[in-house]
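User: Round two. Same drill as before: sequence, then structure, for each protein.

Assistant: Same drill it is. First protein:
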Amino acid sequence: MTQKNTSQAKGHLVVGVDVGGTFTDLFVLDERQGTARIVKVPSTRGEESRGFMNGVLRVDESQSQSEKPAANLATIVHGTTVGTNALLERKVARTGIITTRGFRDALEMRRRDRPQTWGLRGSFTPVVPRDLRLEVDERVLADGTLHTAVDVQQVQQQAKALLAAGCEAVCVFFINAYANPVNEQQAVAAVRAVWPNPYVTSATEVLPEIREFERCSTATLNASLQPVVGSYLSKLDDDLRQQGFAGELLIVQSNGGVMSRETACDVPIRTALSGPAAGVIACAAVARASGFPNVITGDMGGTSFDVSLVAKGEAALAAQTSIEFGLVVRSPMIQIETIGAGGGSIASVDASGMLQVGPESAGSIPGPACYGRGNTRPTVTDANVLLGRIAADRPLGGGLLQALDSHLSKAAIQEHVATPLGLDVLQAAEAILTVANAKMAGAIRVVSIERGHDPRQFAYMPFGGGGGLHVCAMMREVGVTTGIVPRYPGVTSALGCVMADMRHDAVQTLNKSLNELDLDQLKNKLKSLAASCQQRLDSAGVQFESVQEVVALDMLYMGQTHTLQVTLPAGDITRDGIQAAFESAYAAAFGRVLNGLVIRVMNLRYARIGVRPKFDLSVLAPTGPGSMQPLGVQRVFHAGQWCEAQRYARLDLPVGAVVHGPAILEQADTTVWLEPGFTARVDALGNLLVEKEAA
C-alpha cells in the first residue's frame, strides 16, 4: 500500500534534536547540498526549551543577518525526555480521577507487587492521592453488557469538586469500558463541558485494552503529563515560529516512530522513552546499511546505559514498561534495558567492603570530580581520566567541556575506593571500570541470552558520549566479534530523529476464542483502527514515500496467563490463517505447539507507518584523501601497566583506514579507546569496525 502526502515545507534543512542531561545534540541534514553535520550545546536542565533554541540558532551557517535563524529549516524532529523526567521527579500536574464506585484504589493495589519483593515493608505513593480519586455510580460487565447507566450530573459534580481541589487535569477511568465504552464516553463529554482546559483524558481513548490497573495507570500518567508536555511543546513551537520556522515540528515516540506536535500534546505518555528509542532506530538503520542486520546497541550517557537488540534489521517492541516502580505505561515501545552505569555513575565501597558503581550519578551538575564543581566522589569518568583514556586537557576531543583536573580524580578515587580496599590508586581506577563493564555486559546478556539470542551472532554498536571508551571491553566480556562505532556516536539519537518514520499504534481487546471470533466484526474493527491512525498521519502535514500497515493479534492457549503477539500476513484474514500464524509463532518461541487446546484471541493490534523520505547514509562518510597522521602519543594504563597509545583525529581518517591498538581516536562528541590486540577499520559509511586481532 502506498500513499503520497505532497505537503512540503519551504526550507531545505532537516534537523534532529535530542535533549540529554548534559548536552543537547543536533544532527543537521542539508537536503539541497546532500551534506550533514552536528551541533552540540549545553543542556539547560529545567528549562529544556532554552537549550533547544540555543542549538537551533546555530544550525544554519548560511543565513544572512537579515534572515531569521530558523527560516531555512524544513522539519524539526525532537526526541524529548521532558515527560520521563517529570514522572521520575514527580513534577507533574495536579490530577484527579473519576472512576467506577469501588475502584478508586486500583493504582495502589497494582498487581499486588511491592518495591522490594522480599522485603518486609514497602510503600508506594501514587501520582494521584486518594482524596483526588472520586467515584461515581456506573457499571459495565466484562462481556460489555450495560448494567448501570452513568449519571452525568453526578459526574459533573465530581469534576467540579476536583476543580475546587486545584486539579489541572483529570482522567476518567471506568471498569470494563474496553468492552463497551458508552458510559465512559458520556462521562468524558460531561466533564469536558465543565472543564476549563483541554486536559481531560479518557482511559479508553488512550488504551481500550483489558487489564484494569495497566489501563488506569497509563491513562492517569497521560493526564498528569498533558499540561507539562503540552506547555513545553507549545512554547517550543511559538519560539520557533518567532525565529522564522515555517515547517513541521515532529516528536519521537517510544515505539521508534514520530508523531505530530498536536498528537504528542494529546497523548504525551507515548513519549516516555522518546530519546533512547531514536538512538536504537539510527543504530538499526546504520547497521543494516553496513551489512549487519543483527546488532546489540549500547547507549552510554552520563547517568545510564541503555541496551537494546535489533534482529533481522528490526528493533524489538515491548507492550509495556515501568518508568519506576508502580508507574506502569502500557504502550508499544522499543525494548530497552536500562541500568545505572554511565560516565557520571558514582563508585563507592559499601558496608560489606564491596565495590559498587551506580546507580547514583553525579549528573552534569556538579558532575564528576574532575569537573572541579564541588563533587569529591569518584565516577566512571574519573577512572577513565586517571587511566589516560580521556585526555584531561582535551575532553571530548576538544569539544564543549574545558580541561579536566586529573588530580581531583586521583584524590577522589584514593579516598573513596583505593584506601578502603587497600589498593593502589591505579588499581582502584581499573577496578571501577571492571565493575562498570561487568554491569553493562550483564545488561547486554539480559537482552540477548535471556531472550534466546546468541550474542556471538550479533555486532555490538556503542553510542552516546561514553560508549566508544568501553567498546573493546564489551566485546571481550560478551564474546561479540565485531564492534561498530558510528560516525557520530554522541549524536546518534539526534540522527535517529531524522531517520524515524511516522508511526501510530492502536489496540482493541477482543477476548474471544478463535472459534467464536466474528471475522466480519474483526475486519470492521480493523478498518476503524486504520482510519483513526490514518487521520493521525494526515494531521502531521509531512511528506510520505509510502504508507505501510502491520496487523497483529495477542493470542494464547486457554488457561495461559501471558499472551504471544502474532503478526498476520497481508491479505484476506481467515480463521485457518490466524491459527497457522499462531502455531508457527508459538513453535518458534517455545519449540512446540499444544494440540487439542482452545486458542484464544485477546487483543487486536494495528500499526500504520508513514514512511518518510530517507537520505543516503553515505553523506556521513569521510570525503577526500583524509589523514592517517597520528596527532601524538598518549600514555594509557591498561591491564596493570602503562602503554603508549597513538592519538588520531577520528573524523580525518579516510575510508579503508586501519588503526591498530593501543590507540585513542578523538572527535568532538566522543573518544574511542582501542585496546591492544584490537584493530579498527573505517568502512564506506564512516563507521569504525572494531575486531580482535588474530592470535
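Second protein:
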Amino acid sequence: MEDTNFEDTNPVVLDDDTKDIELASLITFIEGRFKRSKDWRRFDEERWLQSYRNYRGLYGPDVQFTEAERSRVFIKITKTKVLAAYGQITDVLFARQKFPLSIEPTTLPEGVTESVHFDPKTPPEQTEEGEETEEQSPYGFPGDGQTMEAGETRTSLEEKKLKLGPLEEKLSEIDGLVEGEGLTPSAATFHPAMVAAKKMEKKIMDQLEESGASKHLRSASFECSLFGTGIIKGPFAVDKEYPNWDEDGTYTPNIKTVPQVKHVSCWDLYPDPDASNMDDASYIVERHKLSTSQLRELKSRPFFRKEAINRCIEMGEVYNSEYWEDDLKDYYLNDHPERYQVLEYWGLMETSVAKEYGIDIPKELKNIEQIQVNCWVCNNFILRLVINPFKPARIPYYAVPYELNPYSFFGIGLAENMDDTQTLMNGFMRMAVDNAVLSGNLLIEVDETNLVPGQDLQVYPGKIFRRQGGAPGQAIFGTKFPNVSNENMQLFDKARQLSDEATGLPSFAHGQTGVTGTGRTAAGISMLMGAASGSIKTVVKNFDDYLLRPLGESFFSFNMQFNFDSEIKGDLEVKARGIESLMANEVRSQRLLQFLQVVSNPGLAPFAKFTTIIREIANSMGLDPDKVCNTPEEALRQAKILQQQQPTPPPGQPQPQQQQQPNAQGLSPNDLQGGGGGNIGIGAVPTPAEGQFSGTGQQPTQQAQNTGQQQAPVGRLQ
C-alpha cells in the first residue's frame, strides 16, 4: 500500500487537563440531543419490534387468545418474503462479483486533457535549429503573417497545452503527442483522465475489500428488507494488523492505518428528528455497547483521551438497557450487563460554543458560525472531541430506505407492508387447525343413570362400561362436529395473495410451486419475473442514490485528502452500478453478442469500441474483465507473437494469401492500409505507382508488396 497520511493536517483535540466544569455543559448538550432523538424514535421502535416478531414467528404481548383457541401456530410468510427480497437485492448488488461502484472522468474533465495520440508512422516535422514554426510560436511576431484569433490571449493559449495528469511523466519522452483521438489505425490513443479514474477505482476497491465492505453491505441489506432502513458508516481510519514473519520465524506484524466501513444497526442510530434523510440531518448520535476491553482499545485510536478512558473504567460499567433489547433476545437476564454505554456525536455546533469548550478553531473556520465536531461521551467523561477532519465536512453515515418515507428519516420495510396480511393468515390458520382437531374427534355424551356409579369414564379401545337397572336406552353417545377447515384455508390463500400485492413480491419469485396459467411456460415465467422485478428495481435505485454513490464519493474525497499518490487524482466522478445489474446477465450477453456481430461489418467497425464491448461481455458472464481481458498493450504484444509464429515460405516462392481476419477494431490488414473502412478486396495494397493512384511512377517497395509483413496497428488504452 502507498504511504498514506490519514491524520488531519490541523487536528483539533481537547487536552486532558481541560477542567471538568468546562465540559459539563457539553455533556449535557449531547445527552439532551440523544434524549430528544430517543423520544422521537419510539414509534419507529414499535414498528421494528412488530416486524421482528413477524419475522421470528412470535406473538406479541398485545395478542390475547380466548379459552376456545387452542392452536398457537404462526405461519412465517414474512420470513420467506424478507429473505427473498434480501436475496434478490444482494444478487443484484454483487452480480459483477465486486462492489457496485465505478470511477469515471467527468463529462468535461478539468485540469487534464481527455485524450491524446501519436502516430509512429508519421513522426513530427523536423525543423532546422533556430527556425520557428507556427506550433512553436503560436503568438506570432511582426511580419510573419500570423495573427491570433479574436478573443485569444497569451493566457488562453497557454491553457491549450497538453495536460496529461498521471501520464505526464510516462509519456514525457514521446514526441509528437497531439490532443484528441487518433484518426489512423496506426495511431496510439491514450486517455489520461481515464487512467487516473481506473487507478482511483482500483484503490477504492482495494480499500473496500480490506475493510470487509461486502459483508457489511449484506448486513445493511438485510435490515433494510426487514426494518426498512440499512445503515453504513465510513470511511474512518483504524490501525490494521498485517501478518508478517521474519526469516527466523519471528512474528513482527505490520501496523497500517487504513480506511474502514462498518454496518450500524438501526437500533443504535439516533438521528436528528427534524431530518428526513442524511443530507438534512444536523446531527447523528450512535449508541455503542462496549466491553471493558473494547473501551481500552479506543486508547490506541487517534485523538482519544487516554486519561479520561482510564477514569471511566475506574468508575465501573454503566449501561442503561432499553425496553426493546429484551424483546430481541431469546432469553431474559435480570443481572446487570457488564458493558459501557458510549455516545458518539457527529453534528453541528456553534463556533462560539466550541471556543467555550476549549476547542482551538483554525483560522479558516473562525468566520464560520457553525462547525462540525465529533465527540464521544461515557460516564460523564469526554473521551474524544475533535473538529470533523473530513473536507468537505460530512457526517459519515449513510441510510438507505427500502421504501422511501418522505416524512421520516427511517424507511418502510417489507415486513411492515404485510403486517395486516400476516395477522389474517395466522388467524385463518389457527381457526382451520382448531376446527380440524375438533371435527377429527368424537364428543362423548354419557347418561350416568344407566351406568354403575364410580366407573372411570375415560374412553379407549376395548373399554367396558357396566350398566345397572334403570331406564332402557343407550347410555353413551358420540357427537361429531362438521369440518369447515377448507373454507378457512381458502381465506388463508386469499390473505396470502394480498401479501403478494402488498409487498410487490409474488410467491413464484421465491420458489412457490404449482403456478398455473401464464407461469407454466418459459416465456410466461420470464414475463412474470420481469414484472416482479419492478419493486426490487426501486429498492436497488435507493441503494444507488442513498448509500453506494455517497459512500463512493466519501472514499474518493478521503483519498484526495489523505493519499499522496498523484496518479489516482483528477477531475473524476463516482457512479453507482447497482441498477445496471437488474437486467438478466443472459439477456445482456445475448444483446452484446448481437451488437458485436453487427459492428463486425467493415463499414461499421470504425465506429465501435471493441475493447469496451469485450469487457462488457465478460461482465455479463460474471467474469472479472481485469482478469480475463488483455489490456491494449498486452493485446498488441500478443498480436505480434502470433504474427511471428506464422510460417514463412521459402525464398522465391510467393506468399499465400492470408485469411483476412478482423483486428481489434474489426478491420482486416487491407482495410487498415486502405484507410476508407471498406473492403477493397484481396491483394497488395495499392501504391502511388499503380493506375488507380496518381503518383510519381516509382515502383512499389517490397514492404508494400508483402502484406504479411505490414505493421500491426497499435491498440487503444481505454
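The mean pLDDT is 75.

User: Perfect.
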